[in-house]
Each structure stands twice: as C-alpha cells, then as structure tokens.
Amino acid sequence: MVELKVRKFGNSLGVVLPKEVISRLNTQDGAPLYLTEAPEGGYRLVPYDPDFETKMTKAEDIMRRYRDTLHVLAQ
C-alpha cells in the first residue's frame, strides 16, 4: 500500500504519484489514468486500455447470455 497526500493545485485537488507507482502503472507525464470503482467498494487507478470498452461489452454480453450457467458454477 502506498500512502498519497491530497494537495491543492490551483483551484483543484490532486495527488503526486511516486516514481515506483508511475513505473508499475507504466505511465508517463500527460498519459490518461482512470479511477474505477472496485466491486468491494474501494477505487482502482488504472492506465488507459483502448480495448477495455470492447472487452467489457463482450464480457457483459456473455454474462447476460449465460447468467444461469454462471450462477450454478459460482456455487
């Protein structure tokens, strides 16, 4: 776990990412990052993945079509 401090940047608030976090996210200055809600209630900071929306659309379609099967497998 990495502790980040919220700081004021002009009229906004932000956090500064340490070098090791930038390296693990494989990101750079000006690159987009996305804050997504995690199922357990927290948040995740993830780098941009241009194929993510396509993958999620396919996954949602599969989950919708095989809902009963997935429910049985989850037991």
From TrEMBL:
Name of protein: Putative addiction module antidote
GO function term, MF aspect, one: DNA binding
UniProt domain SpoVT-AbrB: residue ranges: 7-53
The species this protein was found in: Acetobacter lovaniensis
SUPFAM superfamilies per the UniProt record, alphabetical: AbrB/MazE/MraZ-like
